[in-house]
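Database export, one record per block. Field names are fixed; values are copied verbatim from the stored entry.
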Amino acid sequence: MEGNSYDAAAEHELATKASSSLCSITDVEPMSCTERFVHFNEIKFQHEIVKMQLAVFSFLACLALAGSASSEKCLPLTLDLVFLLDGSKSVGDRNFNTIKTWIKNFTQTLNLVNDADRVGIIQFSHFYKFRPSTDQPYMKTEVVLGEINNQTSLNAAIDAIQLQGFKTFTAHALNKSAEDFKSSSRFNQTNTRKILVCVLDGRSSDVKYLASSSSYVRSLGIVPLVIGHSTHHYDSYIELKTIANGDSSDERIYNISNFDELRLLTPKIQEEISKIIPQIEPCQSGPVTCLWEAGKKRSCEVTFHSNPEAEFIEISKNRSIQDDISVSRSTHSGQVQTIVIEKTEVVPDDEGLYIVELSYLGRGFSISFQVVVSSTQPNLPLIIGLSCLALIVLLFAVIIALYLITIKSTK
């Protein structure tokens, strides 16, 4: 606490502010562990033993609730993956079967069972100009995105796909893929990567629409990875660039001379998918408690989800800027950012709730951490209390064991 000006109401307001701003990606905001700390500490205790027991009780309560809080507050990184397959006559049955085998092998590396990864498959060839999009038999969803959640069923669905054998209306197929992505229940979730793997052969039959359709797909946050059997024609390669990047670069393009080379692409595509991290709103998944010892230099790691990296602004306690507590280091990897909080010399008054203000894409947000300061001397009353608790648990276990032995002997 800072001097004698402890303001419980102000600290509670700060905790509420932090909790409400941490996770804008969810509508459910259960009472956080930080708020529970503040709630317990609103009463000013004078006796050190009672104060320490309360801190231990609050910490254990937070541990018990951390799992449920994190599952509601911070959504895990997920993947919606759609394969867009050229079903034109030029592919041929043999090559088409090679493509199907490759997809079965590739999807074995995904996590379908826990719904972390969802797979969809579209085959395309012809497009009827005067028919609505709902009446296009050769723009076909072979596997609905997310409908199959086990490898055995997915393999059976892939085996059942038959080559259509008509033309190559790629631009219209891209529009179809966008609609399939949008049908996903998590399409608008910022933690979901949306990847479109296109397996193409030759030039498109609707090339005049290709640039606009490709741009539309990318504008939805869908990242195309384009595999093309296009070495025999320069214009085909230009089309691959148009789909993947709008002609701007050769990124995410995989050129093959024959479809047997697909198996060599698996690690490259897996690596590319792992690098694609969507924009993730800042979110602190659970409480952070820093157990510091008075009279010494101490640090504490605070981890939260964010992409891109957030910038540190300031640390406050009771609405007062804490210049003597600083961020010594900040690291960012994928969707996780870690900042290291440091205090040169810890004093008992450092105990309490701290709010860390950061900037994310020009917007402010807050994370928090709780500091519990222990004395340099052993806390004998606490040690005795915990020892008594352990003895009670042990005695209870012995009583149960004796009871079970008695029941067994009477049978």
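Remark 1: The first strand starts at residue 78 and ends at 86.
Remark 2: Residues 84 and 198 are 5 Å apart (CA to CA).
End of record.
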